[in-house]
Amino acid sequence: MSKLFIRIFLWFWLAMMVIGAILVALALTTSPMESFARRETKRLTDYGQQLIETYEAGGDPALSRKILEFREKEHVNLVLLNVKTESLSHQPIQPNLLRFARKALLGQLQIPLPEEPGHRGHKGFRNFAIPLDQDYVLLAEVPRPSQLELLLDPQALSLRLVAIFLVATSVCYLLAHSLTAPIMKLRRATQELAGGNLGVRVALQLGRKGGELADLGRDFDQMADRIANLVESRQRLLRDISHELRSPLARMNIALELARGKAGDDAAGALDRIGLEAERLNEMIGQLLRITRLESGATLSREEVDLEQLLIKVVADADYEAQPRKRHVRLTVRQGGVVHGSRELLHRALENVIRNGLWYTAEDSEVEVELRIDGKGQAAVISVRDRGPGVPPEALDKLFRPFYRVEESRDRQSGGAGVGLAIAEQAVLLHGGAIAAANAEPAGLLVTIRLPLADSHAEADRLV
Amino acid sequence: MNRILIIDDDIELCQLLSDYLGSEGFETTAVHAGPAGAELAGSGAYDLVILDVMLPELNGFDVLRRLRAVSMVPVLMLTARGDDVDRIVGLELGADDYLPKPFNPRELVARIRAIQRRSPAFAVEGGAVSALNRPEILHCGDLTLDTGQHLIDCDGKSVVVTGVEFSLLYHLLKNAGRVVSRDELAAGVLGRKLEIFDRSIDVHISSLRKKLGRRKNGRERILTVRGVGYRYLVEDD
Hints:
The complex is a heterodimer of chains A (464) and B (237).
Chain A: H1 3-29, H2 32-74, E1 77-82, H3 95-105, E2 125-132, E3 136-143, H4 147-151, H5 154-194, H6 212-262, H7 265-295, E4 303-306, H8 307-322, E5 328-334, E6 338-341, H9 343-360, E7 366-373, E8 379-385, H10 420-430, E9 434-439, E10 445-452, H11 457-463
Parallel strand pairs in A: 5-7
Antiparallel strand pairs in A: 1-3, 2-3, 4-6, 7-8, 8-10, 9-10
Chain B: E1 3-7, H1 11-23, E2 27-31, H2 34-42, E3 48-52, H3 60-70, E4 75-79, H4 84-93, E5 97-100, H5 105-118, H6 120-125, E6 137-140, E7 143-146, E8 151-154, E9 157-159, H7 163-174, E10 179-181, H8 182-190, H9 200-212, E11 222-225, E12 229-232
Parallel strand pairs in B: 1-2, 1-3, 3-4, 4-5
Antiparallel strand pairs in B: 6-7, 7-8, 8-9, 10-12, 11-12
Helix pairs in contact in B: 2-3, 4-9, 7-8, 7-9
């Protein structure tokens, strides 16, 4: 039997027991009959006062009339007695009632009259003997309250209802809380893990009690450990590979220089080519390292980056680079904007996107770069549009994957490892932004980057 | 001024480098482990140390630390590609400059020569004409810089700095009261252009500040002029 089963079972069982016990206690300690009696006593005392006034004002006839009135209107039989227990309205009275009246006068009676075996009151009625002002005593016959009336007696009922309500509420609340609180904690931890925080653990929070939920917490922690290890070892692997690749490259560079020194002019061209390829290898390793670092969730610096300034520079450098290839890039719209983040990362991201555009754009054409602020002033929107062949629609969202190439055979010359756009995406995401590619009319690719501006709501949301 | 010590565990690289540097006129010795390297480097037998930070056992930074405790011999670090932290830590620990692996050997030689130009030993032995050739003594407030003796006297106390820091302070004092751009400083002190996002000069300035401390009246000596460079403040600035 599972511990959770036992727990839920016991909670409810306990709740029932407690409620039952409280009801019994209440039943024993309160009595609807008593509260009925108390209420009636008050009412009757009031009537009695009225009778006294009537009698003292108008004597027997008035009293008798009043008594009749009460009988008809309030359905109570009243008899007013004087100190000598004589009926002032000349009504006949049963002897045992008279006895009670005398006792009441002497203060020996509990009100109302207790049920007495053999007491021949009218069935369905209760009798009251109430001393009034020390000179009078009131005998009253009042309809007995029905079971329903007793049940619905406000005082007793409210007490029971309150008791049941309190117990049931607290038990159910505690049980629900004890079940859902760990589940909520688990949810939050899961979300954090999915969001990239590989260090989150729950076992401690869920407590050391046994039970399925605590077990689940431990399972979660194990899973998180495993994932963290996997990610770490992948990072380490990439880093180590890159490191290992560096050593032969470094040696090769030196050997190349040595060769240049010893070789004649004929070999110069070929040697230059070797140097170029070595440089490309170098560049690729650098990109790989960068992307592994970004993916492992690097923390972002919080500089203030002026996008306009940054773009002006990147565009100028890229344009200079592209001139020998007869291509150009221009910043056509610049609305300005400041973001919080890493200048270096953004520089690389923008550079990669623009270089990509320059690579594919047709000869003698221009890559247009625009910097705008969106309508609500929340984000900067940078668009890079080239006049190349564009990209088939199904490949559009794959563009930002590392090593993805639209056409396998083409463009081995671009020099990058196919990682440039992937780096751009990671960098943009780190800044809380978004990047997307679409085909432009009539031809060409349009890459759009959105970045939340500094001190905007969008940024505040991201930081939460 | 051309005795170079290479501390790197890559034996083949050291062989190649020795060949190449040899062809450029340098005398090189290679050692492949940190502890031995630190000892040799501090012995005074070498004019320049090329130190790989990625050493097994005692890592490059620890070697650097040990070395700087006993000697101000110029150190050129070979760092891992793309690791900015390494670079900054190295510079802060007192390295003169760095070069990421894999590097262009010609670039290496250029930096070695830049370091040579700064060194007073070189100036004394002759070589390419440089501003540090003729011994100069510069005064500014409570600071005295003697390029001949390679000494800095600050408020009566002698201050020990690395070759780069010395050269940096020299340039600032020579232009005391005026702003010197970071590019100018990089060219004069490191003998090269600053790369984009290269904070070498900034790290060296920070070290200098720490070593010199503030003036008696509590004011800073070196002012950062954002986006431009640095300025050594004259008394009434």
